[in-house]
Design a protein that fits this description.
By secondary structure, this protein is an alpha/beta fold. 32% of the residues lie in helices and 31% in strands. The protein binds 1-O-pyrophosphono-5-O-phosphono-alpha-D-ribofuranose (PRP) and uracil. Uracil binds next to helix 6.
């Protein structure tokens, strides 16, 4: 992992190999979906390594062992739609995590985020929150998502994405300097339609086959 302030790039060879396949325009939806789930699982393994644990005793068939349990609950918050493609993989790794949903789409003309659904767990403030969305483009969607999460009183928030644009990173770290950003790649720039170059295209359309 390489870090610059609160922005971290996960350079693990398996993550990078799978990201390369996900970027490939020839990968069909079923392959893209599988890759996204696998990458999300590997990235979640990396970003949770600093979560605090408490000691706990467990009876083995022959004695008592001291093990650990996570100190806090974990809430995953996928931004609909594309974040759902990452949630499945992370839930395989952290099945006890709660899941909140934020529905946000970008207005096609202005690229401004439009929030259309908000369902967060009532006790989210006591948990460590992982916001998930494969694409950090202008940063508009992630910034309003974090605004909504912070309104609940939640304090420990990480953003997990797959590909980030420098424009989105700048906007997000300015609006929410306390939120750590984890990505598998920082790409070149946005095109005039707000798509990341070279990116991987429209993540939601590639996951759900709505191209
Ligand atoms: C995509 C993506 C992010 C957002 C990123 O969603 O999944 O949520 O764009 O762009 P931003 O950083 O400029 O806000 P989209 O609006 O295409 O909705 P969808 O996931 O429902 O397709
Ligand atoms: N949303 C996407 O799905 N892809 C991009 O490149 C930008 C926003």
């Amino acid at each position: 992992m390489t870090s610059n302030g609160n922005v971290h790039v996960i350079t693990h060879p398996l993550v990078q190999r799978k990201l390369t396949s996900a970027r490939d325009a020839r990968s069909p939806s079923e392959v893209f979906r599988r890759l996204l789930a696998e990458i999300a699982m590997l990235m979640a393994y990396e970003i949770t390594r600093t979560y605090p644990v408490d000691p706990v005793e467990v009876k083995t068939p022959l004695g008592t062992a001291t093990g650990t349990e996570l100190r806090h609950g974990i809430t995953l918050v996928p931004i609909l739609r594309a974040g759902l493609g990452m949630a499945d993989g992370i839930l395989r790794l952290i099945p006890q995590a709660r899941v909140g949903h934020l529905g946000i789409y970008r207005d096609e003309t202005t690229l401004a985020p439009v929030v259309y659904y908000n369902k967060l767990p009532p006790d989210i403030a006591e948990t460590d929150v992982i916001l998930i969305d494969p694409m950090l483009a202008t940063g508009g969607s992630s910034v309003v998502a974090i605004d909504a999460i912070k309104q609940t009183g939640a304090k420990t928030i990480k953003l997990l994405c797959l590909v980030a644009a420098p424009e989105g990173i700048a906007r997000l770290t300015t609006a929410h300097p306390d939120v750590a950003v984890y990505t598998a790649a920082i790409d070149s720039h946005l095109n005039e339609d707000g798509y990341i170059l070279p990116g991987l295209g429209d993540a939601g359309d590639r996951i759900f086959g709505t191209l």
